[in-house]
Amino acid sequence: ATCGADRTLKVWNYLERHVELEKAFAEEARCVALHPSGDLVATGQGASAGGAGGACLHVWEIASLLSQWRL
Q: What is the DSSP code (8-state) at residue 48?
């Protein structure tokens, strides 16, 4: 999975080298992590570099890219 300045989360099929799922955000996602089970992905969003406020962690179900938790 990747995320970046284009304000998207992309879940890749690395064997076939193409994007399986993509989700667009209103703000830049700054980091991404996959759960070892492969069922969940987390994104860190909202705070500007060196800035304060608005930062949050979202946990998404990969199959649907529906939000499961926001911390």
A: P
Q: Give whole-number Cα distances, 5 to 15, 28, 36, 53, 58, in Å.
A: 25, 5, 25, 19, 17
| Amino acid occupying residue 66 | L
Closest CA to 19 of 66, 69, 62: 62
Write down the pTM of the prediction: 0.79
- Can you count the helices (H) and strands (E) in the chain? 0, 7
Running DSSP on this structure, what letter comes out for residue 24?
E
Residue with structure tokens 């759960």?
35
Structure confidence by residue, pLDDT tens digits, 17-71: 999 999 999 888 899 999 999 999 999 987 655 555 678 899 999 999 888 999 8
Torsion of CA 68, 26, 21, 41, to 10 degrees: -40
